[in-house]
Amino acid sequence: MARRFDEVHIISKERNIEDRDKGLIKDEIASNLAVHRVLDGLVSSNLAILGVARDAGADVLFADGIGHAASSLLCKKKSGIPLITFVQGYEADLKAIGLKLRLGMKPRPGLLSKLFAVYDSMVLRCSDKVLCVSNGLVTYAQGLLATKDWNRIEYIPHSLEYVKYVPEEALMWAENIVGSTKASTKQRFPLLMVVGVGPSKGTDIALKAHRYIIKKNPDAVMIFASKTINQKYVRMAKNLGLRDNLLLLQSLRRDQVLALLSHASIFLCPSFSEGFSWAVAEAMALGIPVVAYTNKSLRDAANKGAVAPVSTINPKDFARECISLIGNEKIKEEFVQKAKDYVRPLTLFPEKKRFEMICNNIDQILSRQAVKCRS
What we know:
Blueprint: E1 8-14, E2 25-30, E3 33-39, H1 46-56, E4 61-64, H2 66-70, H3 73-79, E5 83-87, H4 91-102, H5 110-126, E6 129-132, H6 135-144, E7 153-155, H7 168-181, E8 191-195, H8 203-216, E9 221-226, H9 231-239, E10 246-250, H10 254-263, E11 266-269, H11 278-285, E12 290-293, H12 299-303, E13 308-310, H13 315-327, H14 329-347, H15 351-374
Parallel strand pairs: 1-3, 4-5, 5-6, 6-7, 8-9, 8-11, 9-10, 11-12, 12-13
Antiparallel strand pairs: 2-3
Helix pairs in contact: 1-3, 4-5, 7-10, 8-13
């Protein structure tokens, strides 16, 4: 983005900032690109963003999500700087699910989601442009805005072009990892992949489902890849007797996750907090059948047979779908083909084109702002 515009300022979270550095830290990365690192909590602060925008002399606010857009509203109001909001998930649903999980309730959005949707609607009404990463999210944004404002909404699809170029080094690393899980046997074994660990990721469901899976397929191995692995899940796996059929990996690079996915028999996604997640799309593009909890984001893919849907939070139901795919190559191939067809437009869509679409929207907003200033 710095190549396209004269000067770019980015606000970034700093998770391990020292107490003595609590002020804004400016880190010059390039002659026209600056990153302002702020305390983790301040990234959601209207005052912090207003302060950075004033110091930097911002021309446009680009918010990566409705939550960050909400943190920019004071800045927009005080300074008149236009706001572009990038919508990447059904945020009202995700907030409702997150709150219910914290309260120990079943993770279904329900009425709570409708209340959060009012909040989302207020933010999008204040946005000068709304960019959505899927057609489903375009419909979501349209439901939150008046018909006369739909011209502010634009579809900016993901690009999965990078999936075709997994480095050879990462593939060799993944092959060694997979080989080490069942070094005692040369026969092919079912390998299930799960990305992300935590309550909202349905980790407990995946672990309990695996217990049922290995009763039918004793050689089946489940690999978890996550930024961090909470020790409570290590203990849970031990208590469930999964130690010999489980591998927990953390702090992996994206190319390593992709390489592991390419070796998987099934990608299991019992997550409540995902939209149409990167990992699901990547698995589809790599030809790995997906068994997933069917939230709103995955409903279209499930209806088109690109995902094996599970509409409950019962581990047995997830296990049943996985066992069915493991035992029936024909059904598995059908899922793989439909999934590849479903994501083909994304694999053929260049990242450079996506970047140009985003920058063009920024240009449009800046041009309108310049006209307003002259008038």
